[in-house]
Structures are given as C-alpha cells and as structure tokens.
Write a structure and sequence with these properties.
This protein is 50% helix and 7% strand. The chain starts with a helix and ends with a strand. It has one domain: Cytochrome p450 (Orthogonal Bundle). The model has no long low-confidence stretch (mean pLDDT 93). It has 504 residues and is α+β, with helices and mostly antiparallel strands. A 5-stranded mixed sheet has the order 1-2-8-5-3. The chain is globular and about 85 Å long. Helix 6 packs parallel to helix 19 and helix 14 packs antiparallel against helix 16. The protein binds protoporphyrin IX containing FE. Protoporphyrin IX containing FE binds next to helix 5, helix 13 and helix 19.
Length: 504
Amino acid sequence: MLTFLMILGTLFLIVFNWIWNSTYWSRQGIKGPMGMPIFGNMFQYLIGRRQYGLIYEDIYKSYPKASYIGIYRVMNEPAILLRNTEMIKEIMVKSFPNFSDNVLYVNDKREDLVFCNPFIAKGEKWRVMRSELVPMFTPNKMKLSFPHIASICKKLDSFISNDIGEMPFEGKDLCAKYTLDVVASAAYGLDGESFTNKGSDFTKLVKELFMPNPLSLVHTTALLFLPKLGDLIQYRYLPEKVQQWFVTIISKVMSRRRELKDNNNGDFLQWLIDAKQKTGELVDEFTIIGHCSTLLIEGFETSASLMAYALYEFSVNPHIQKRVQSEIDEVMNKHHGKLSYEAILEMTYLDAALYETLRLHPPMLALLKHCTKPFELPPQFNGVKLREKVVIEEGTIFVVPVQAVHHDPVLFPDPHKFDPDRFSEENKRQRENCSFLGFGEGPRMCPGMRFGFAQSKAGLVTMLMKYNVQLSEKCPKPLEISPTTFLTTSRSGIWLCFKARRLQ
Ligand code: HEM
C-alpha cells in the first residue's frame, strides 16, 4: 500500500510540475501553445524530425494577430517568440542593451579561443572583439582583399573545367571548397589546397565543424538548449583538434613574418597586427589567433550556403539565370573581362538575387537573444491591454524567427516565389524595417556581409560566365532542410550540373 501511495505521489508531483511549468505564460495572461513534459514545444526537433527553426515557423503561423507568443523550449523553458517586425525592431535595435547577448551555450572554462568571436562573446568582451574586427571590412579593405578572391576564382574555373565538366556535383561541397580557399588566402595568406588536395588540413578540419554527422542533434541541443548536456558530453564549439591546429598554423605564419620583417601582406592577419601596432598596443598573439579563427568559422560556411542555394534557385528559375548572366556579360565586357571589386559592385541584379536567396534560405533560421536587463512586455495583441504588468526576467530567451518572417505572405506576397526584384533599390526602400534578417539587425548585425557578398558574387560570376547551371536528376525535389544541424543544410545535398554556355 505504501509503495502504491509513493508511486501515486511521485506521479502527482510529475504531473503537477509539468502543468505548473507549461502554464507559465498562461498564468501571466500571455497566449501560446502549451508545452509537453520534457519536450516543451520542441518534440519534433528532439526526435530528429524537424529543424528547430521550422518549429518556430509553425508556431509563428498559428498566431497571426499576436506581436509575440509565449512558447516553451526543451524542458519547458519559457521563451518569447517575436511575431511582428515592430517587436523585432524593439528587441534587436531600440532596446538592444536589454538583449545584448546571443544565446549560445559555449563554456569558457572548456574553451577560450572562441570567446574572441563576437558571435559568442558577451558584454564588454563582445564590444572590444567586435570593435577590433569591424575595421577589417571597410570598402577599402574589401578592395585590397579582392586580388585574393580573384586568384581563387581562377582555381575554381580550372577545377570546374578539369574535374567536373558536365558531371553532377554537390553544390555546397564545391562552393565550400571555394570559400575555404578564399578565406585561407584573404585572411592569412595561406593556400587552403581545397581544389588540389583532398586531404588538405583545411578541408579535413573544417569538415569536423559544419558537416552533419550522427552527433549533430546532440551538439545542436547542447549549443542552443541545454548547457548541462554540453557539460556532460564536454561539448566544444571549436573541437580541440581544430583549435590546436589553428594555434600552431597561425603562430607559425606570425613568427615567419616577424623573422623576415615581412609586413607587406594584404591580408586580414596583417591588418589586425598593423591596427594593434598603430595604437601602440601589445600584439596579443592569442587574440589575433582568435580573430583568425572567427574569420574562418564565420567566413566560409554562410557564403558557401548562400552560393549553393543561389545555384539551386538559378537552376529552377532559368529565366532569372539568363537575366543574371546578361548582366554579368554586360559588366564583364565593360571591364574588358577583368574580374574586379568595382565590376562586381556594378552587378546589382546579382546582388538582388543573392538577397532573395538569403530570404528564401537563410543560413540561420532563427536568432536567439538573451534578456540581459529586465524588460516590460507591451500588449500581446494590438489595442488589448495585458491582464497585469509582465516584466521579463534576466536570462529569458527571445526568439527571432528569421525564416518565418522571410516566408510571411503579409511581408513578402507569394513568399515561396524566387523573385529578385523584391530587392530592387526601389522595393528595398519601401520594405518594412526588420523584415529582412539574413544578416541579423542592430548593433550585432553581421560585420562580414560585404566580404561574404564579394566572395559569393565573384564565385558565381566565374561559374555563370561560362556555364549554365541545371538541377541534376539526383537532386531531391523539393529540397529538405537537415533536421539536426545548427545552420541550414540541405538534407541530401544540392545536386547540380553545368552545361557549357554557347556564347554569341
Ligand atoms: C553571406 C554570408 C553571411 C551571412 C548570411 C551571415 C549572417 C550572419 C548572421 C545572421 C549573423 C547574426 C547577426 C545577429 O545576431 O543579429 C552574423 C553574425 C556575424 N557574422 Fe556573418 N554572415 C555572413 C558572412 C560573414 C563573414 C564573411 C564574416 C567574417 C569573415 C562574418 C562574421 C560574422 C561575425 C563576427 C558575426 C557576429 C557579430 C556580433 O555578434 O557582433 N559573417 N552573420
């Protein structure tokens, strides 16, 4: 009898605990879906069926009139999902000091180098790291780094003609080879050897960083939801092997440059050192290596994803591909066939096509912001006062559902249509603030967007000048997003093939 009562009591406590936790928002008069025990609203994600960003999109669609929604993440952790652009602007721009940190559970006791990355760093460290990195991306620096991009474009061109021809290829894999070599060259003056050496250090180590693997779901959960799981599995954002390799390789480059008194390198590493020396600051090797790792981690994957999805969209929209190619032909003729920074800046339709690609396929389906100072919620529904004043506590998570906003038919009519004209200069001026979030918004907005666009445009120009791109029969239709990865990745790859263009 006693055992029976104990079981009954435990069951009662579990059910009570679940009901109490999963009614956190309704007890405050805030509407949203009820959470399930343990899973919250993330059941489909935790069983590996649906990417977390797509779940946020499902919830977004269910509350069309709200300006935010009370949701439950894993373990019924209450969070706020932003539902309109006014609220997004409030959180990311106007009240930025209340939401200054990103939500990424990286442990500073387990790893230190990645805290030089502004994406990970918090508070004052974030401000310092970001202020050191931003001057690397001025238009003048972009122009100076362009010869690196142009020289890798030549390698890309010969790889396509010698190794791919008209055979099917996986788009992300090809584009990642290219962006990896660009970053290795533009950031540290090194040859990434991605096109020439299948076993190159850069290729091997970077595979460990971003490619989906059997542990992706566990790693993404540790990074975005459960710091305790991260402690249990000793999760690291930058695997130890990669960090060690990085420290060794960049230290070598720095000491070689010191020995040869060689400071004439037009790359990010040199500019970082010069910037320190100019202000008379100590050149702290650890921070410089940290910045170098940021350039690699942030610099290659997002652009490779953008390029691969752009190739996919050009394949399924051949009339748009033709228009992009006509612009490329015209601008390249004007510049006597020379690929330069000025030339790619003139390709405004290609620019618009890349924005439209990011709208349809953002590399980050959602951005997560930590409440860093208490914040009073405005009414949830236009003109309807909250039952009582709701002040959000420090530590609560606010979700910016990037893909949901990008696919919202109110903001982008016929949202699944690929239409670069949405990003013509005139249409851009008329668009609502904070409706395009491909690079984020506010003081934490992506500092590397100019470089990302420069390398992506140059690579695409190199391909589309000579080839038409088509879907390979191997390509799944429609494309599905891998349910387990942190960044958007196509589940079965983006399979394409080139056909040589017949130029008039
Ligand atoms: C097309 C390519 C790229 C896309 C789509 C992209 C997208 C993004 C997004 C969505 C964020 C988050 C912004 C936010 O929280 O509001 C971000 C942050 C960041 N990106 Fe990019 N990015 C790209 C290329 C690059 C490149 C090439 C670099 C550097 C080489 C870079 C460096 C960073 C850094 C350092 C941050 C953190 C900024 C901060 O929190 O202060 N990104 N990026």
